[in-house]
Write a structure and sequence with these properties.
The longest helix has 29 residues. A three-stranded antiparallel beta sheet has the order 2-1-3. It is of the alpha+beta class. The protein is 57% helix and 24% strand. The chain folds into two domains: 30 residues; 58 residues.
């Protein structure tokens, strides 16, 4: 019985270590692409940086940050998000 219990403990410890490794790997992958995006809207401009697993995701996240700060209300925010950024710059890590 003790041998079975010890083997189960090792399996649980190995599973926990594997789970922690997968979490760490996915966290590093999520921040691999980082960009600074500048938006102009209603005569104002703002630059924000964001990271994501892909170029599109990182740029869209930064656009959302910019437009939240530049717009007044949901309708203006949607109009701002439909515009092209004034600049996009990759941030080296």
């Amino acid at each position: 019985m003790a041998s079975k219990s010890k083997r189960l403990s090792w399996i649980i410890a190995l599973g926990a270590a594997l789970f922690i490794g997968i979490l760490a790997y996915s966290s590093f992958q999520a921040t691999r692409n980082q960009y600074e995006v500048c938006m102009s809207f209603n005569g104002s401009s703002h630059c924000a940086s964001a990271s994501g697993t892909s170029y599109e995701q990182a740029v869209r996240s930064a656009q959302q940050i910019d437009c939240e700060l530049l717009s007044n209300g949901r309708t203006q925010n949607m109009v701002c998000l439909d515009q092209q950024p004034t600049s996009i710059r990759r941030i080296n890590q």
